[in-house]
Design brief:
- The chain is elongated.
- Strand 2 and strand 3 form a beta hairpin.
- By secondary structure, the protein is an alpha+beta fold.
- The model has no long low-confidence stretch (mean pLDDT about 80).
- A three-stranded antiparallel sheet has the order 1-2-3.
- The protein contains three helices and three strands.
């Protein structure tokens, strides 16, 4: 009997840290997943908004992108939740165009490395001599949490203008 007197204390000393690591890991995964879902949803909605025709535009084949990049970036920022928003959204006022990449990633462009919202609009000439526009939204973000390493999140969404 005397030998078993301290076993529950030793078991608790081993089990409590393992339990705390599991709880912190679960909460960290939940926060990272919520961030990823938020930026993915914002990128899809931004690309959809960028590919939609402007109100009142009845031209069969648009000669330019249907929505300006600044309007697309503002729409994306409006979708991001305050607690999950990017730093680029807090300083973005919509008066200037957001950064873009040299060419749409879906067409062979390079992936941006800095955090932020990238809106790129690429014209593509089809075989029948019709130009269609791709609106691509790239969102990059690092999730910073205590006790866990920085997690880089990135998402890309592209849509083609179908008004022609």
């Amino acid at each position: 009997m005397k030998r078993e007197a301290g076993t529950s204390l030793v078991e608790a000393a081993i089990a409590i840290p393992v339990f705390l690591v599991l709880i912190i890991g679960t909460l960290g995964f939940g926060i990272i997943y919520a961030n990823y879902q938020a930026i993915t949803h914002a990128a899809r909605d931004g690309a959809r908004f960028g590919a939609a025709p402007m109100p009142g535009n009845t031209a069969p084949a648009p000669p330019a992108p249907p929505q300006p990049a600044a309007a697309v970036a503002q729409k994306i920022c409006s979708y991001l939740v305050k607690g999950i928003s990017l730093d680029a959204c807090s300083s973005y006022d919509g008066s200037t165009a957001p950064p873009s990449v040299a060419n749409c990633i879906v067409l062979g462009g390079t992936v941006p490395s800095a955090d932020g919202i990238y809106v790129t609009q690429c014209p593509v000439l089809l075989e029948n001599r019709i130009t269609v526009w791709y609106t691509e939204v790239d969102i990059r973000k690092h999730v910073r949490m205590p006790l866990l390493p920085d997690i880089p999140l990135r998402t890309t969404a592209a849509m083609r203008n179908e008004t022609n």
